[in-house]
């Protein structure tokens, strides 16, 4: 307390000067319309900027919750779009009506990426869902923008996913405009590009055309983006195009993914096994 009194005594002239300055400013603002308006406009401007900064900081701290909510909404929309597209396939012949169980066979579960590789020849990523969440090896994994990979190994709380950026991974893909089906396979170089192989050169392929997962796929729903045609070349002595796709998924910035569960996969695999046994 004595120190505070000593400070006031030593700086009494300066403090009086500050007090008079504040009082003078207040009198000017109160008695002059122009300066009063200027004061209030300036004050409102800085108050608004302060509030905007405060709101930005608060929103930034909630980004994880916002992203999780968006991921949940995307999973719901994915399931809805897949069901609707299977109920009324665009290229189905007249009279074909799929049963409701087939149309709604794919379900989606959100997972967060906790580890990811893009610079190896055989890249994998790790997600925070495992057997405790019903995840099993062989399930497909997609992002909000396209195909990601397939679950390879599971522990109780984590799963290792073979990325599409893996030399041994292939996914059946269809070009939207030409309807041609091939296989998307990474060449181990650029994580933004992937090859589309086994597409006959006797059909027209358009640069910029979209490649999506085909109907000949038990792991991924049809119509999931793989990429867009970036380059098309063909050699005279070959019967297939050399097609390069620009991947629709940015693997360097993966945060949330969706594990795809085909509820009829067991039935399909059982039929395949019977076919093998009877050959």
UniProtKB/TrEMBL annotation:
Pfam families found in the cross-reference section: MreC
Coiled-coil region list: none
Listed Gene3D superfamilies: Rod shape-determining protein MreC, domain 1, Rod shape-determining protein MreC, domain 2
Segments crossing the lipid bilayer: 12-29
Keyword Transmembrane helix recorded: yes
Record flagged with keyword Ion transport: no
Domain Rod shape-determining protein MreC beta-barrel core, first and last residues per copy: 113-260
Keyword line: Cell shape, Membrane, Transmembrane, Transmembrane helix
InterPro entries given in the database record: Cell/Rod_1, Cell/Rod_MreC_2, MreC, MreC_beta-barrel_core
Source species, domain of life: Bacteria
Family membership: Belongs to the MreC family.
Name of this protein: Cell shape-determining protein MreC
Gene name for this UniProt entry: mreC
């Amino acid at each position: 307390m004595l120190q505070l009194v000593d400070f006031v005594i030593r700086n009494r002239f300066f403090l009086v000067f500050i007090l008079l300055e504040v009082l003078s400013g207040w009198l000017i603002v109160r008695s002059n319309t122009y300066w009063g308006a200027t004061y209030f406009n300036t004050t409102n401007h800085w108050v608004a900027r302060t509030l905007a900064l405060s709101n930005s900081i608060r929103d930034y701290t909630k980004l994880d919750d916002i992203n999780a909510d968006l991921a949940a909404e995307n999973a719901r929309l994915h399931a809805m779009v897949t069901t609707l597209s299977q109920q009324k396939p665009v290229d189905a012949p007249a009279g074909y009506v799929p049963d409701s169980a087939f149309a709604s066979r794919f379900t989606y579960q959100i997972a967060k990426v906790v580890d990811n590789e893009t610079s190896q020849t055989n890249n994998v990523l790790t997600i925070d869902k495992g057997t405790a969440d019903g995840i099993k090896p062989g399930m497909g994994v997609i992002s909000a923008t396209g195909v990601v990979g397939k679950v390879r190994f599971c522990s109780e709380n984590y799963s290792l996913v073979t990325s599409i950026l893996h030399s041994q991974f292939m996914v059946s893909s269809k070009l939207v405009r030409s309807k041609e089906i091939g296989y998307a396979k990474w060449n181990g170089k650029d994580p933004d590009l992937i090859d589309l192989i086994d597409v006959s050169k006797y059909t027209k392929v358009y640069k910029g055309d979209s490649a999506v997962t085909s109907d000949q796929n038990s792991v991924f729903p049809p119509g999931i983006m793989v990429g867009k045609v970036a380059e098309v070349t063909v050699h005279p002595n070959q019967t297939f195009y050399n097609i390069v796709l620009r991947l629709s998924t940015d693997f360097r910035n993966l945060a949330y993914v969706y594990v795809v569960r085909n509820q009829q996969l067991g039935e399909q695999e059982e039929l395949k096994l019977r076919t093998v046994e009877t050959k």
